[in-house]
Amino acid sequence: MKAVQLIEIGRPLELREVAVPALAAGDVLVRIRAAGICHSDAHYRAGVSYAGPLPLTLGHEVAGEVAEVGAGVTRVKPGDRVCLHYLVTCGQCRYCNMGQEQFCVQGQMIGKHRDGGYAESIAVPERGVIALPAEIPFEHAAIMMCSSATSFHALRKARLQAGETVAVFGAGGLGMSAIQLARGLGARDVYAVDINPDKLALAESFGATPIDARAADPVAELRRLTDGRGVDVAVELIGLPLTMRQAVQSLGVLGRASLAGITQAPFEVDSYRELIGKEAEVIGVSDHLLQEFPLLIDLARRKMLDLSHVVTRTVALEAGAVNATLDALQRFGGEVRTVIVP
Question: How far is the C-alpha of 167 from the C-alpha of 209, rounded, in Å?
Answer without folding.
Answer: 9
